[in-house]
Specification:
mainly alpha; rod-shaped
Length: 121
């Protein structure tokens, strides 16, 4: 009976020694990692500042892109309104007088030619 208790006690001592060994090893690794972090702290701060600047620049590019798209959208809407009004005028004059209709169609063709060739330049 005492022999059995002695074996269990020795086994517990071996387990405790192994656990203490692993805790000591983990502590050494954590201390080494902490030291590396402290040594590279200045570099990490500079990297974070660089990333922040890049994020700000990307945000500015996105905002300017959105503004550009809004301008293009407004220009497209104005051109659509102009074209609709011109064709309404053309169709309304086509039935009344043929000369005015041909003049309006020439103006519409000239405007389309100008829009295609010179407006995008």
């Amino acid at each position: 009976m005492y022999f059995f208790i002695a074996i269990i006690f020795i086994a517990e001592l071996i387990i405790v020694a192994a656990v203490l060994f692993f805790i000591t090893m983990a502590d050494k690794k954590v201390c080494a990692f902490s030291q590396k972090v402290l040594e590279s702290k200045d570099g990490l701060i500079e990297d974070v500042k660089t990333v922040r600047c890049v994020i700000i620049q990307v945000k500015e590019k996105i905002v300017s892109g959105i503004e550009y798209l809004e301008r293009k959208k407004r220009r497209y809407q104005i051109n659509m309104i102009k074209n609709i009004l011109m064709y309404v005028l053309l169709f309304s004059l086509k039935g009344r007088c043929k000369k005015a209709a041909s003049i309006c169609s020439m103006i519409a063709m000239a405007k389309d030619f100008y829009d295609k060739n010179y407006a995008n330049a």
